[in-house]
Design brief:
Chain A is mainly α. Helices cover about 70% and strands about 0% of the residues of chain A. By secondary structure, chain B is α+β, with helices and mostly antiparallel strands. Chain B has a four-stranded mixed β-sheet. A two-stranded antiparallel ribbon of chain B has the order 2-3. Chain B has a two-stranded antiparallel ribbon with strand order 4-5. Classes of the chains: A mainly alpha, B alpha+beta.
Amino acid sequence: MKEATAKRITDDLLRPLLNTSWRFFALVAVLGGIVLMGANAWAYQIWNGFGESGTRSPVFWGFYVTNFVFWIGISHAGTLISAILRLVNAGWRRPVTRCAEVITAFALMIGAMFPIIHLGRPWLFFWLMPYPSGRLIWPNFRSPLVWDFFAISTYLTGSVLFLVLPMIPDFALVRDKTTGFRRKVYGTLALGWQGTTKQWHRLESAMQIMAIAIIPVAVSVHTIVSFDFSMAPVPGWHSTIFGPYFVAGAIFSGIAALIIAMAGLRKFLHLEDYLHPIHFENLGKLLLMMSMLWAYFVFAERLTTWYGNGTSEMNVFWATQRGSYAPLYWLMVICNFVIPFPILALRKTRTIAGCVIASCGVVVGMWLERFLIIVPTLGHKYLPYSWGTYEPSRAEIMIMISTFAAMGLLYTLFAKLVPIISIWELKVGEHPFPVDAAAAAKEHGLLRTAP
Amino acid sequence: MTVDLDRCTGCGACVTACHAENNIAVVGDTQAAKSRAMHWIRVERYWEGDFPDVRLKFRPVMCQQCDAAPCEPVCPTYASHHTEEGLNAQVYNRCIGTRYCANACPYNARVFDYYNPQWPKPLHLQLNPDVSVREVGVMEKCTFCVQRITAAEIDSKAENRELKDGEIKPACVQSCSAKALVFGDLNDPESEVSRLSRSTRGAKLLEELGTLPKVTYLARQTQA
């Protein structure tokens, strides 16, 4: 690699960290304001009582659980895709991995908030965890909600590690390029990285281990989230297909979120030289494949229910298929399949703009899917006398909007504080790893002691 | 417990008595319209036939105190659990309000405290000192008037005698003017409730789900 190229990469990718325009502050102020409004809505709900949500008998779960499943689903793009692409050593992954992994970390943090927001008594949320209690009471390990706690905390820990590990050499680079307070902070974050061969080897094996370990964890997380539903003897929920169905849907929505985030970064941080149309093309193909897989799962699930013809199952089935939830149901099919499929299937429309349009459809469609799994089912349980419906409250809508703003805010701040594209990985380029890693590191002054 | 559907007149006295006995909040018309009324027992009404040959049928539904209760394993904090006597207990202080139990319950027998409880005057003067008042964010449901069961057990123990059949009457049973509801010990084969449960008219609600409910419904014989 030429010295000039390396310098240009460093300059381009460090620019967002070193120069800040007024637009950044304006964006942070707007997003932060929306997040504060959401926090205010939650405080209002805690103060007045959970009645400020729209849930009612028998629909005891509404927007909050929908958003929980949705955000945990979004978290399935980053780490999973990045891990798979790292394992198969796909060269084009290099500019994509970090901005994907960040989605996972933040979406998980946001998603994990919802089980707490949705509690009747959220100040007692720690009773879901096995903590050393003076009364020797542990949580009920038979409850899928406790499984959720373990699944999500494992996944969050794993994906944060997976995200932070390859950031270490970049922190060292920022440390070496800055002075004063920043140098101190990034120096601490760099954990004493000197770029020795030994350190590169350790980093490489740690990332290999994490890449392999995180894949089954990711698959298990959304399976366990689906267990929240499939474990209960409720018509429309009690189904063995839910595990893989949820995982497929999660990856589907996750890829869509990744494409939207990448397009945003490309436009606002001027990363046109790094995020090429080919990246969108490749991810678009992946999204196309997931769209077909999603359609297959929906078809399999619907056909099984219809063919089985169980009385209570059919009540839920018709409520979504042609009853009061039908407009939402068919909107979901349009957003998840009818729109993205042709856009992504034709090479002509599989452009960056096309991929973003398809992805926006998928994000909306997958949110609707989560909603349609929860609400119509709860509204049509066995005894028709106690059937009911649901209407979201203002607090629920506000909190939901604020989580999207929170995602934007966290992402903006992250892109401001950390190089959003892994600089050293980009420099290593297509070369086999880690032989050239040390050489590449030497090139931009990371290597201080001789290997 | 047995519920004789032939005898039920749908008067709703059981619902009122239950509210009074168990300090159940009165949520008011706005909340009730939002389907947040907190009846631990409800009288379901089903209409049969086409106008003008319409028949109205009643079915009182309360917690079925299932032996294999779907609400119990899903609770993350053991707030919903099985007592040694076979009741489905709800420990209000332990409940954090995930509402998972209510979703898992096939009978929708559980109700949730969306706000702190309140009673319009003068109902606030008749709270039952034997029953705890539940705070906001807690799930609650029919207990088979566990406070009455415990009181009767203590009395009989103090008087050094066995409990008599029919000595314990939950509020709904006590107030049922048609004697549609019968309560007693199912472990005693001679008790009235055991005898009625064995009736050929007897059936469990949603028996096919395998929840093993302890309430037996006695089917209608009359066409009225």
